[in-house]
Design brief:
Length: about 500
């Protein structure tokens, strides 16, 4: 979008360290830095980069976009870290041109930046206020309201093999039939369900032309083997232990080899509704029922960047984006296809299943395949356990980065649960008691747990409260008399502190 409007864009690619972004911005004399984030750990990277810009005394404007970003996150976590330059969240690429033009205009820049900052101060204050209002169940009470499954009455089936199995060079033609096209159109900002979107009075014509191009490229991808698709799946004996799932080396269940940690819904539920955690779908050790769990990593992206770069170097950005979008669709199709084969053949708990690709998209199958990072398990770090069990780097050629993104980008990983009563759900926001409990189970400090679980916390961690107080002090100097340090320094105050300094700031935040 920016390029089409005569901005020169230097694209550093994906998973680029903050140091390289800053170094390139300096070397090239960039007027603006733009960051895009797909999964929540990248949000943390963005906050870190903002802090680095501040530390290095830079003033270059920072634009934030991508699937998991939001105005609230930008206001609460990124903007306070970078006081030197304006930070602007752009949730729609078509807005980027207007925003960039305002930020680069000598006449408009100051006023625009001040307006955005004031707006973020308000959003941030409202967010902190709202957080304090919403109460959740105590973890013990949520656990007491867990779904109860009769595992003895519906004993889990043993998979046809235990351990791992890899699939190299999987047939792309087979995967093409399992593509869910609806998200493909979303990538191009075209809203509507496939195939109805093709006849939509507003976007139908564009959608048809895009779909036509995509089908042609897909044919070439399949015929000429542009990408390599690989997968590794595995099954192990497992039993639940509280909200954790213990994975055993073999059926003797004597040697634990890994633990999956799960999070429980804490929202108060209506009568007859449960507070679920993924561990509820595996038989507890105390039931004496032998159960199993599966895990998978699939990729359709081996070679995707080479082809996409080839188009880009030929200045054909359209084909470059098209090709990446198709690699993503193939990865998702691969996850779907592999799950179907798991149910019918490899685990074999639904051998007679005859669902069409469309029914699969509607998730009308038995069992679930939740992925770390999805709403049922918002903790991305659980991917490390999946990768270790599957030896995925070696067996599937997929790497896990420090911030738990997968490389190649067109990859999906997750767990398999077989029980007919397992279902997809969202953990939602959780309270400090669960974070403390989870931290202890993971062997983390509470601060570490708060960092990884930041998007689902239903309270303000101490470190954020301190940053918020500093932020408000700066954003509203006339309202907030600067407290004399160190007596009024709130950074070491306990969570939920109600001292005079905190109360004064909260009151001002409420007024704002
Ligand atoms: C496509 C997709 C994928 C693809 C592609 C991934 C890739 N290589 O990019 C595949 C299928 C491979 C995939 C995999 C995964 N995904 Co995914 N995926 C999506 C999906 C459906 C769409 C994202 C997308 O591309 N949208 C289209 C683009 C164009 O929109 P956009 O990113 O919002 O960007 C727009 C604006 O934000 C703006 N913008 C974006 N960047 C920038 C930058 C600047 C500077 C500016 C100005 C503007 C701007 O412009 C764009 C156009 O308007 C989302 C759900 C959703 N509906 O958002 C989940 C989603 C992002 N995925 C998710 C997850 C968890 C994963 C996995 C971790 C799952 C797993 N365990 O395997 C993996 C991770 C993959 C990896 N490599 O690490 C979660 C993330 C949740 C979270 N809290 O972290 C989401 C939100 C799904 C969900 N509901 O839970 N995913």
């Amino acid at each position: 979008m920016l390029q089409c409007n005569n901005f020169e864009v230097i694209d550093l690619g994906v998973m680029v360290p903050a140091a390289k972004i800053i170094e390139t911005a300096r070397a090239e004399g960039a007027d603006i830095i733009g960051l895009s984030g797909l999964i929540t750990p990248s949000l943390d990277e963005m906050s870190f980069l903002a802090g680095e810009l501040q530390r290095q005394g830079m003033t270059v404007p920072l634009l934030i976009g991508g699937a998991t970003t939001s105005r609230v996150h930008t206001a609460v976590k990124i903007d306070p870290n970078y006081r030197g330059g304006p930070v602007v969240h752009v949730n729609d690429a078509s807005r980027a041109v207007g925003v960039a033009s305002s930020l680069l205009s000598p006449e408009r820049r100051e006023a625009y930046a001040a307006e955005v900052r004031a707006d973020y101060a308000k959003i941030s204050a409202a967010h902190f206020r709202a957080q304090a209002d919403k109460k959740r169940l105590k973890l013990a009470d949520a656990r007491a309201n867990a779904p109860v499954i009769d595992f003895a009455g519906t004993p889990p089936k043993k998979p046809t093999f235990l351990g791992i199995r890899s699939f190299a060079d999987y047939n792309l033609a087979e995967l093409a039939d399992y593509i869910d096209w609806t998200p493909f159109f979303q990538t191009w900002e075209l809203t509507g369900r496939y195939p109805a979107i093709l006849d939509d009075p507003k976007v139908g014509e564009v959608a048809r032309s895009l779909y036509d191009d995509a089908r042609k490229m897909l044919d070439r991808i399949v015929k000429e083997n542009w990408f390599k698709a690989q997968a590794t799946i595995g099954f192990w004996p497992a039993n639940a232990a509280g909200d954790d799932i213990v994975v055993y080396a073999d059926d003797s269940r004597k040697q634990p080899i890994a633990t999956f940690h799960t999070l429980r819904q804490q929202l108060e539920k209506r009568e007859g509704r449960f507070n679920s955690a993924l561990a509820d779908f595996i038989a507890p050790a105390s039931s004496g029922v032998p159960d199993y769990i599966g895990a998978f990593v699939v990729t359709a992206g081996i070679g995707e960047d080479v082809i996409a770069d080839r188009f880009r170097n030929a200045h054909d950005d359209y084909s470059s984006i098209l090709c990446k979008a198709l690699a993503d669709r193939l990865a998702e199709a691969f996850a779907e296809r592999m799950h179907a084969r798991v149910r019918r053949e490899f685990w074999g708990y639904a051998p007679d299943e005859t669902l069409s690709p469309d029914q699969l998209i509607l998730e009308q199958y038995q069992g679930i395949r939740p992925a770390p990072g999805y709403p049922a398990q918002p903790d991305h770090t659980e991917k490390a356990t999946v990768f270790a069990l599957l030896d995925a780097e070696k067996t599937a050629g997929v790497k896990l980065t420090e911030s738990y993104a997968m490389w190649p980008g067109s990859s999906v990983s997750g767990l398999y649960f077989s029980h007919p009563e397992s279902f997809y759900f969202g953990v939602g926001k959780i309270e400090r008691d669960q974070v403390e409990d989870y931290a202890a189970r993971k062997g983390w400090s509470v601060a570490e747990a708060e960092r990884w679980l930041a998007p689902v916390l239903n309270y303000i961690p101490t470190q954020d409260q301190s940053a918020q107080d500093r932020h408000l002090r700066e954003a509203m100097p006339t309202l907030a008399p600067a407290p004399a340090a160190p007596a009024n320094d709130v950074s070491s105050h306990p969570p939920g502190c109600n001292c005079a300094v905190h109360l004064a700031y909260r009151k001002k935040a409420a007024r704002a």
